Amino acid sequence: MKLFIYHTPELTPEDKVPDCAIAVDVLRATTTIATVLAAGAEAVQVFSDLDQLIQVSEAWSADKRLRAGERGGAKVAGFDMGNSPLDCTPERVQGRRLFISTTNGTRALQRVQNAAAVTAAAFINRAAVVKYIMAQQPEILWIVGSGWEGSFSLEDTACAGAIAHSIWQQTELPLAELAGNDEVMGAIALYAQWQNNLLDLFHHASHGKRLLRLDCYEDLKYCAQTDIVDVLPLQQEPGVLKV
Ligand code: MLT
């Protein structure tokens, strides 16, 4: 296995497709995706464009769909919900498909949608994703952070480091053999420094600060938990993830 980490979707090579890609948007899209699937949603379908989301979801009856729209951290007017994982209660989501568009996370998933296998990871489902990777042993694995509008995000790279660290421990390969680019070592070092203080790290992160200004402290606390849901979101068709 060769592991490559990219801090943003824009940094992924355009002429290559990996055997497996893991999209990461800790704050908050991939945390929300893992949560909604753990709570019994039928599937999650991701869109970069809000109008297209509305159009495609029209084909589903109102009791079978939920529309989630987020821009700049805030809920988009007219949508059922924004992007808070705390809104994904079983009562609300069971049996429904979540149609979701977010500023960066859904774009990252779309960027890697042609990989042979695609999954979504956050701290909350890190162990489930690593277990899948260890079983599949993809030859080329990408972990792609969502970042913020093309820029690096601390929390996504720290989560990429958490996944890489766990894979490294379990493969017992020398890091030099496992790592496909320098970002792997950097991400593992970032995670190693903050693994016991992820909530503090989020307070330093620009998007963490943005969410705090929007009164989302409870979201940050939830997203800072590691390995609390045993759920593996797997792409079944481009843009559609199920367990
Ligand atoms: C994104 O896609 O940029 C994020 O998930 C934003 C958010 O916190 O809702």
Automatic annotation (TrEMBL):
Its EC number is 3.1.3.71. It catalyses: (2R)-O-phospho-3-sulfolactate + H2O = (2R)-3-sulfolactate + phosphate. It is an enzyme of class 3 (hydrolase). Keywords: Hydrolase, Magnesium. PANTHER family: 2-PHOSPHOSULFOLACTATE PHOSPHATASE-RELATED. Belongs to the ComB family. HAMAP family: ComB (MF_00490). This is Probable 2-phosphosulfolactate phosphatase. It comes from Gloeocapsopsis crepidinum LEGE 06123.
